[in-house]
Q: What sequence folds into this?
C-alpha cells in the first residue's frame, strides 16, 4: 500500500506485455525518471560551473596583501595574485585625483612602486631632506609576510637610491589573521601605529596624541634619536636630519636669548621633544638663582616658548610665561 | 517565436518528432530502410496508447502490427506539420476502434491478467492494473499510460493528444488519486 499506484501500474503493464514489447517498455518507462535525474545532474552541473567561475573570478581579484605606504599622505596598495597591483587608494593626499589617474591596477608590484615613487617625488612628498617612508604590509593569504617585506623594502630602497635619495624605509609586516589595516577609518597605518607605540614606550613623556600630529619623517627622526628598538620592523637607512637644527644650535639660540654664555650656566640640558605636533628642542639651564627653560622649534630654530624663574627668594619672584609662535626675539629680564 | 524555433532546430539535436517526420517522408518515397528505426521510436508509446483503448496486451500487439502496415501504406498522405506522433495516433485510434467493433471483447479479469503475466504479479500490481483498466476513462488511461509507460512528459502528451497542458495535468493527478482511493477501499 505504500507503493505509488503509478509504480504498480508500470510494473504490471511491463509484466503483462507481449515478450517482444517488454524490454522496450522497461527502457522507455525509466525514461521519465532518467530524464528527471538527467535534469537534476544538469542543473547541479550548471550550479557547479557557476560556483567554479565565481571562485576563479574571486580568486583572481582576491587580495593577497594590503601594502600601506606612509609618506605623509598615506597610500594603500591592494596586491592580488603574483604580486599584481589591484588598486591604489590615496588617503589624506591633497590631490587624490592625481593618484587615481596613476592607473596602477594590473601592474606588477615593482612597476607600480616606480610609478608611485616618481609621482611622490614630483609632488614633493619625497626629497633628499624628506627621505622617510613607512610601509606596512598586511598579508591576507598564506604568503610569507617576511618575503613580501624584504621584496618591497628592497625595491623601494633601490628606486629611491636611483633617484639619489638616501632611503630611509621602515617596513612592518603582519601575517594573515593579524590586525587588518584600519587606514580607511583612522588614517593611521599599522606601521605608523607601531612606530608611535614604540616611541611612547621608549619615552613616557611622549603621548600618542602628540605623536599622531607628527609626520612620518619627524617620527623617524625622533625614533632614531630615542634609539627606539624596532623588534619586528625592517629599517633601511636613516632619516635625513639636515632639515633640522642640531642640539648645539638650539642651545646657542637659547643662550643668546638669555644673553648668557655656556660657561655662565649650570645644569645645561637639551633634548628633542614633541609639542603640539611640532618637533622641538627643550633646553634647560640654571644660573646662580635663576632657572631657564626654552622650547625651540627644531625645524626653523624659533623660540616657541620660554620661561625663567628666580628660585631663591619667593617674595621676589618674577615669573613670566610667554606663548609666542612667530616672534623669536623675546627676552625676559 | 519563429526565430527561437529556428535557433533551437539548428542548435539542438533533432527531436523524436523531427526524426519521425524524416522517416515518414522516406517511407512516402517507398524507401523502407528506416522502418526499424520508426519501430524503435514509436513502439512503446503506440503500445501504451493502444492498450489504453483495447485493454488487452495481445490484442494491442495485433493492432499495433496493423498500425505499422497502415503507416507504410499511407506515409505519402502525411503532411509534415511537426506532429507525426499525433498522425500515427490517429491511425492507431481508427484501427483500434475498428478492431473493437469486430471483436466484442469484454475486459480481462484479474485472473486473466495473472495468467498473461510472465513474472508473478503482486496483488497490488494486479489490482492497480485491473482498476486502471476498468475504472478510469479511456482518456485518463491514455494520459497515465503515456506518462508512466512511455515516459512522455505532460507537455508532450498535451501536444500529441491535442489537449491543453492544464487539462492533462489535472486529469493525470485525478486519475492517480482515483486509483489510490479505489485501492484503499479494496484493501479495507
A:
Amino acid at each position: 500500500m505504500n507503493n505509488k499506484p503509478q509504480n504498480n501500474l508500470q510494473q504490471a503493464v511491463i509484466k503483462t506485455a507481449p515478450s517482444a514489447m517488454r524490454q522496450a517498455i522497461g527502457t522507455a518507462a525509466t525514461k521519465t525518471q532518467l530524464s528527471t535525474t538527467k535534469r537534476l545532474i544538469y542543473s547541479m552541473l550548471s550550479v557547479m560551473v557557476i560556483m567554479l567561475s565565481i571562485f576563479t573570478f574571486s580568486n583572481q581579484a582576491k587580495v593577497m596583501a594590503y601594502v600601506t605606504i606612509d609618506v605623509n599622505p598615506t597610500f594603500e596598495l591592494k596586491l592580488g595574485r603574483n604580486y599584481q597591483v589591484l588598486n591604489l587608494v590615496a588617503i589624506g593626499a591633497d590631490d587624490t585625483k592625481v593618484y587615481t589617474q596613476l592607473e596602477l591596477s594590473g601592474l606588477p608590484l615593482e612597476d607600480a612602486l616606480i610609478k608611485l615613487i616618481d609621482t611622490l617625488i614630483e609632488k614633493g612628498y619625497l626629497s633628499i631632506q624628506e627621505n622617510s617612508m613607512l610601509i606596512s604590509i598586511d598579508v591576507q593569504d598564506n604568503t610569507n609576510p617576511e618575503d613580501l617585506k624584504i621584496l618591497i623594502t628592497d625595491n623601494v630602497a633601490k628606486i629611491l637610491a636611483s633617484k639619489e635619495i638616501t632611503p630611509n624605509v621602515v617596513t612592518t609586516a603582519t601575517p594573515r589573521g593579524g590586525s587588518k589595516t584600519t587606514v580607511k577609518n583612522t588614517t593611521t597605518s599599522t606601521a605608523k601605529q607601531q612606530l608611535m607605540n614604540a616611541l611612547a614606550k621608549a619615552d613616557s613623556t611622549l603621548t600618542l596624541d602628540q605623536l599622531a600630529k607628527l609626520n612620518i619623517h619627524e617620527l623617524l627622526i625622533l625614533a632614531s634619536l630615542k634609539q627606539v628598538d624596532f623588534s619586528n620592523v625592517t629599517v633601511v637607512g636613516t632619516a635625513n636630519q639636515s632639515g633640522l637644527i642640531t642640539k648645539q644650535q638650539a642651545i646657542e639660540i637659547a643662550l643668546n636669548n638669555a644673553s648668557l654664555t655656556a660657561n655662565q650656566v649650570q645644569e645645561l640640558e637639551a633634548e628633542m621633544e614633541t609639542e603640539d605636533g611640532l618637533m622641538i628642542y627643550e633646553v634647560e639651564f640654571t644660573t646662580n638663582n635663576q632657572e631657564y627653560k626654552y622650547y625651540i622649534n627644531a625645524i626653523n630654530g624659533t623660540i616657541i616658548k620660554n620661561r625663567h624663574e628666580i628660585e631663591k627668594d619667593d617674595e621676589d619672584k618674577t615669573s613670566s610665561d610667554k606663548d609666542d609662535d612667530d616672534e623669536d626675539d623675546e627676552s625676559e629680564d | 517565436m519563429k526565430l527561437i524555433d529556428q535557433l533551437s532546430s539548428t542548435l539542438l539535436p533533432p527531436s523524436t518528432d523531427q526524426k519521425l517526420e524524416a522517416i515518414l517522408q522516406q517511407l512516402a518515397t517507398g524507401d523502407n530502410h528506416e522502418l526499424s528505426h520508426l519501430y524503435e521510436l514509436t513502439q512503446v508509446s503506440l503500445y501504451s496508447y493502444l492498450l489504453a483503448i483495447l485493454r488487452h496486451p495481445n490484442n494491442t500487439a495485433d493492432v499495433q502490427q496493423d498500425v505499422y502496415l497502415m503507416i507504410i501504406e499511407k506515409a505519402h498522405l502525411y503532411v509534415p506539420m511537426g506532429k507525426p506522433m499525433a498522425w500515427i495516433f490517429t491511425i492507431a485510434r481508427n484501427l483500434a476502434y475498428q478492431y473493437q467493433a469486430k471483436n466484442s471483447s469484454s475486459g480481462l479479469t484479474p485472473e486473466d491478467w495473472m495468467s498473461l503475466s510472465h513474472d508473478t504479479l503482486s496483488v497490488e500490481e494486479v489490482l492497480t492494473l485491473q482498476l486502471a483498466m476498468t475504472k478510469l476513462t479511456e482518456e485518463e488511461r491514455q494520459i497515465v499510460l503515456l506518462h508512466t509507460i512511455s515516459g512522455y512528459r505532460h507537455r508532450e502528451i498535451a501536444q500529441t493528444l491535442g489537449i491543453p497542458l492544464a487539462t492533462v495535468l489535472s486529469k493525470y493527478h485525478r486519475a492517480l488519486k482515483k486509483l489510490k482511493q479505489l485501492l484503499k477501499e479494496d484493501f479495507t
